Amino acid sequence: MAEFLQFFFSGLTVGSVYALVALGFTLIYNASDVINFAQGEFVMLGGMSTVFLALGGIPLPLAALLAIVITTAVGLALHRFAIEPARDATAVSLIVITIGASIFLRGVAQVIFDKRFHSLPPIFGSEPLRIGGAAILPQSLVVFGGATAIVVLLWLFIDRTLLGKAVIATAVNRLAARLVGIDTRRIVALSFAVSAAIGALAGVLITPLALTSYDVGTLLALKGFAAAMLGGIGSALGAVIGGLVLGMLEAFSAGYLSSKYKDAVAFIVLLAVLLAMPRGLLGRGKIERV
Amino acid sequence: MFHRTIGTAALGLAIMVATGISASAQIKIGAVLSITGPASFLGDPEKKTLEMYVDDINAKGGVNGQKLKLIVYDDSGDANNARTFATRLVEEDKIDAMVGGTSTGSTLAMIPVFEEAQVPFISLAGAIQIVEPVRKWVFKTPHTDKMACEKIFADLQQRHLITIAIISGTDAFGKSMRDQCVAAAPNWGITVAYEESYGPRDSDMTPQLTNIRNKASLQAVVNTGFGQGPAIVTRNYRQLGIDTPLYESHGVASKQYIELAGPAADGVRLPAAALLVAEKLADNDPQKPVVVAYSRAYQQRTGEAVSTFGGHAYDGLMILVQALQRAKGADRANVRDEIERTKGYIGTGGIVNMSAADHLGLDLSAFRMLEIKNGDWTLIPEAKS
Q1: Interface membership of B232 toward A (CB under 8 Å)
Q2: Which of A179, B92, B146, B196 might form a disulfide with B128, Cβ 3.0–4.6 angstroms?
């Protein structure tokens, strides 16, 4: 039982990060039909910026906040300079543009930061909590709590504010949204900004556990994408569930089956979803009127 | 108009001849290192060391009156990139010798290129397959993974810890050292009762370590691998409250491992070169002058603590330079022969005596057993056997 709990918490922690990355994918996809493969880089920028700002002497909480602000600015810049000028291009072209942007961001990170691994001090210390025989670091709970808080805040925003309604309207039918006076360009920019902020926060929270370096973004983006596909691309709740499920699958397969194929789990899931269940767990099919 | 054409042609010819002459007066040394990527804390000190000492040697007049030219490429820890750069070094840059190959994976990928081009290659990687079977043009400076296993087993024997688990990285070095340990264990009376593995880029090893923790009979755990993986294994190890003795390999012989693992690294034992405890060596230790000098020079020039990986690069370069001096020229076959004749070279890794059958030249005494205490390396006195 103790080891089941241990794997469960390990899966919960890493699953929370995947959930946040998948949420970022979904937000941008909903607003603009673009799959943003630079999502992983937002996580990397959040972590690395915090590390380097803290190394430069800025107190840690302020460094984290600044890092999130900087990453949000990067997300907005990505939209303004890479996506917006190409808004009439095909979906495939836009995806390739985001892949190019991710490579660019990684290259810039190598130059501005450095190529080593970095860590951050955990928020509540490194003494593990004993729950039912399993040892959990407080930071794991922080990651999960942070992810939950973000999901709740996002839901409140979408459901309770006018701007949130505008986001939903844009996701449902962009032309109709424009016809009722919603500035869809601003909404798409907003979705990029929010995705970047979410990614950055995830990066700040996970760095004390998983370390960070200039190239952690690639694998994270792929696994987050697998999680988003698993949950059903287009569904925010699906993204969160997909992320948690993927994290659990990884942890349990590493613990009970073989640890050699841990990385393969995400891709096996992706293949299985694309072949057998393209809509994912909670996705809706696209209905076209002819 | 005619004069102008003649003038430009003459100028062009002069430039070509001048660069041609100065180029052939240089000895070209190639280096393919993993400066970025998961092996960056190995490759980065290697690059800095090679550049530092090539500059120093050139400032003192070079070797045999010729300057050294160092050509460095970054393979980012990817063996495919290493192979491409090796081919470029041979075909385009036309190097005279190669010191590099940070990781076992990159080295093994590059060996066929240098063997075929007949260029002497001094590798900076760990696995024993690099020099066993002996290949004519390939040498190496770091201790082998087999020696690391044997040094660890000697210490385990002394502490009467005979049932162990091995958790290994799936990279070439981690896997190779795991294979060597499993093969050598019976000779030392050690039983490998359980095994786990992890990917070199994994960020969480608690599932594997939980399984290890639940095996009651284990008396020690050996982690083979390098780079970021062992740092996370060490952190997770303490997080789970496992107090069984933990041994690492020489793949973590860098202060960056201690920084990343934090207080979790206290109590970890590992075999490493004397370089890490330079100042703490006995005064009559033959290695002391060399390691203290390198250690101080590196720290002064780069502001970073010294690591054994930079030390291996230093040894590789010095062995090559001494071979060049004895060969009195850069003819590749002569240089290769002279590298093979290296005897009594006191380096950061140990005292090197190479031969036609031994392209490493180190024995077990070149490794020292270290323990990490309070974030620093301490020397464990040698077992009296």
Answers
A1: yes
A2: B146
